[in-house]
Design goal:
By secondary structure, the chain is α/β, with parallel strands linked by helices. 39% of the residues lie in helices and 23% in strands. It has helices spanning 13-35, 40-46, 52-74, 111-125, 150-158, 172-182, 206-215, 256-265, 281-288, 308-323, and strands at 2-4, 76-89, 91-97, 130-136, 140-147, 191-197, 219-225, 231-232, 234-235, 240-241, 251-252, 270-273, 293-305. The mean pLDDT is 85.
Length: 339
């Protein structure tokens, strides 16, 4: 099988062919003119220095060399070469809170949008690691599995909103249990969970599940999205705010003690995100400093360049055309008919 690195350069064969046709036409016209010079003895005297076979050889060498040079420029690739690539990294599973409290606006533009922005920045900073995402509210779902395709991960990330999980509430234990089964339980290293939430928990089993996850080697980092003073939860596209049974507006506050304890149990770090940028630089450094492993080895066939098979003969032809003399050194001796 043959491939070409620069197939567009094959268009140079069009002017090459035109030049070849013009040269043949010019040679034919010159031949006709020579026949009109007179008898063969006169022709021999006038054109005795010219060696026509050599001239034809020079033309052949020139056009052959030029054609081979164009073919070399096209960049033919023939044969295959097996290349082995090893990728080093860890598995990073994001747990993103999609409960309605994440619509609160104490972090602009909202808690959820700020969390998505920070996750995107983390993904951009990773190097060869696999990423996945769990979304949770009243239940937890695997939004996308572990992958090294960061472009696809960002597409799935952009699709997250607070309507993604139908069962509302905030049950951290559901997400931790799913994360424990998603990450390879057979290895005790190379895996991390990053929880992005306002810390509300309506179940109470989160610390218990965090301990179980830590026993399997999962490092748990937590990111608090929100503020201690809190903010109301918008509903009906922001036209109203969520109220309790007594008709009072509900204020959702950041539960930092819960998130700090989860990070402590999971041997990770806790970071609070506010309206400033660069909040998670420290967390990114923590992930990048983790011990890496070979996640996957790729073997694929690669075409090897073979342009030199055409470039070298092309240069030889052009060099021979340059060095090959096209005529005689001495003038021809013509014997008189009366001698």
């Amino acid at each position: 099988m043959i491939q070409f690195a620069h197939p567009q350069l094959a268009l140079l064969f069009i002017p090459w062919l035109g030049l070849l046709v013009w040269a043949l036409w010019r040679q034919e016209r010159a031949t006709r003119r020579l026949k009109g010079l007179g008898e063969s003895r006169v022709q021999w005297y006038v054109l005795g220095r010219v060696r026509f076979p050599r001239q034809r050889a020079k033309n052949v060498l020139f056009f052959l060399g030029l054609g081979l040079l164009i073919l070399a420029a096209v960049g033919p690739k023939v044969g295959t070469k097996v290349v082995e690539l090893k990728r080093q990294g860890v598995d990073v599973l994001f747990m993103l809170d999609t409960s309605t409290s994440m619509d609160a606006g104490d972090v602009r533009p909202s808690r959820l949008e700020k969390a998505k922005y920070e996750v995107g920045r983390l993904i951009n900073g990773l190097k060869g690691d696999r990423v996945g995402m769990i979304v949770f509210a009243g239940t937890a779902h695997l939004h996308f599995p572990l992958t090294s395709d960061y472009a696809a991960a960002r597409l799935f990330l952009n699709a997250v909103d607070t309507r993604l999980v139908q069962v509302q509430g905030t049950v951290l234990a559901e997400g931790l249990e799913l994360a424990r089964h998603t990450l390879n339980p057979e290895t005790k290293k190379y895996k991390s969970v990053v929880i992005l939430s306002d810390g509300e928990d309506h179940d109470g089993r989160a610390l218990q599940l965090a301990r179980k996850a830590a026993e399997t080697g999962i490092v748990i980092h937590t990111v608090g999205i929100g503020s201690p003073s809190g903010a109301p939860i918008p509903i009906d596209d922001g036209r109203e705010f969520k109220k309790d049974r007594d008709g009072r507006i509900v204020t959702s506050v950041l539960n930092e003690p819960m998130l700090e304890e989860l990070a402590r149990v999971g041997s990770g770090t806790y970071t609070r995100v506010d309206n400033r940028s660069g909040n998670l630089e420290g967390l990114l450094e923590e992930i990048l400093s983790m011990e890496k492993r070979t996640l996957k080895t790729h073997e694929f066939s690669q075409f090897e360049d073979r342009y030199q098979l055409f470039a070298l003969p092309a240069l030889i032809c052009l060099l021979l055309e340059l060095l090959l003399p096209g005529g005689r050194r001495e003038a021809p001796k013509v014997r008189s008919r009366y001698a």
